[in-house]
Amino acid sequence: MARILVVEDDDRLRELLERQLTRLGHEVFAVPDVEAAPDRGRAMELAVVHLGVPGGGWERLGVPVVGISGGPRPVPYPPGIVDLLRKPYTLAELGDVIGRHTR
Asked: Which overall architecture, per CATH, does domain 3-100 show?
């Protein structure tokens, strides 16, 4: 499957997302913020980023980014975001979004 970078500042949500993606068969590298992933994004096929992560910076990751947000749907998506997953989401919804943006 795909190599996916997860950027989520909430420890519990980061661990949950890592488990969900692993369950879907992906290789996952999870960090609390973009700064904790220097050059790591470039080794991944996709990043899944909580849009509320302090410091932002997902456009520097160098890979397509699926944003996760519990807030209102921004139209258009913020720069660098290829898709948006709204909280709460199901495992099937996560799998569908990831599948649209990976090989």
From this structure: 3-Layer(aba) Sandwich (3.40)
Amino acid occupying residue 23: R
List all residues 6 or more positions away from 48 whose beta carbon is below 8 Å from its beta carbon. 4, 5, 6, 7, 17, 21, 65, 66, 68, 85, 98
Q: Which amino acid makes up residue 81? A: I
Domain spans in the chain, listed from the N-terminal domain onward:
3-100
Helices (runs of H) and strands (runs of E) counted in the chain: 2, 5
Asked if 84 contacts 73 with a C-beta cutoff of 8 angstroms, the reply is yes
Report the predicted TM-score, pTM, of the whole model to 2 decimal places: 0.89
pLDDT tens track of the chain, all 103 residues?
899 999 999 999 999 999 999 999 999 999 998 888 766 556 889 999 998 888 778 888 888 999 998 877 666 677 788 999 988 899 999 999 999 998 7
